[in-house]
């Protein structure tokens, strides 16, 4: 082999040992990371402040009615979501909705106002 040719090959051969092996990007299992749902009361005016009779008029009979002391949770289940309405008394008055939580049937987060809208239309609306 020609000496000048061998010297020409030396730098690329020396650099070949300095490369970093490429690895695949990490694969996410279980789908995408959850996206936080904004927490506002916009679109909830028909529910916040209602008593149990008002919720029944809006959504129909609750699918679950849980009482603990003076607090009460009414749960409404629809095809697209589950809504929990928490009623608390104030100053001895009848309990009224002060907090609402919503989720998709699989437990994923969903916008509360969208859930309220979907539930008011369940069974053809009320």
Summarize this structure briefly:
By secondary structure, the chain is α+β, with helices and mostly antiparallel strands. Helices cover 25% and strands 21% of the residues. The chain has helices at residues 3-16, 52-59, 112-120; strands at 64-68, 71-77, 82-88, 96-103.
Give the DSSP E fraction (strand runs of 2 or more residues). Answer: 15-25%
Mean pLDDT: 79
Helical content class:
10-25%
Order of helices and strands: HHEEEEH
How many runs of DSSP E, i.e. beta strands?
4
**Which outline best applies?**
globular
| pLDDT < 50 runs, ≥5 residues | 18-28
Strand order across the largest sheet: 1-2-3-4
Give the helix/strand class.
Answer: alpha+beta
Tally of separate helices: 3
What Rg is obtained from the alpha carbons, in whole angstroms?
30 Å
- Strand count, sense and closure of the main sheet? 4 strands, antiparallel
Distance between the termini: 92 Å
Descriptive overview:
- The chain is an alpha+beta fold and 126 residues long.
- It is globular, with a radius of gyration of 30 Å.
- The longest helix is centred in the N-terminal third of the chain and has 14 residues.
- A 4-stranded antiparallel beta sheet has the order 1-2-3-4.
- The protein contains 3 helices and 4 strands, in the order H-H-E-E-E-E-H.
- Strand 1 and strand 2 form a beta hairpin.
């Amino acid at each position: 082999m020609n000496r000048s040719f061998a010297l020409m090959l030396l730098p690329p051969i020396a650099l070949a040992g300095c490369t970093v092996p490429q690895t695949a990007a990490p694969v996410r299992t279980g789908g995408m990371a959850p996206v936080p749902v904004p927490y506002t009361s916009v679109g909830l005016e028909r529910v916040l402040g209602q008593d149990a009779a008002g919720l029944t008029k809006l959504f129909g009979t609750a699918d679950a009615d849980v009482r603990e002391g003076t607090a009460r949770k009414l749960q409404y289940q629809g095809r697209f979501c589950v809504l929990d309405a928490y009623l608390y008394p104030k100053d001895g008055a009848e309990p009224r909705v002060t907090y609402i939580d919503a989720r998709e049937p699989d437990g994923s987060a969903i916008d509360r106002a969208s859930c309220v809208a979907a539930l008011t239309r369940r069974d053809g609306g009320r």
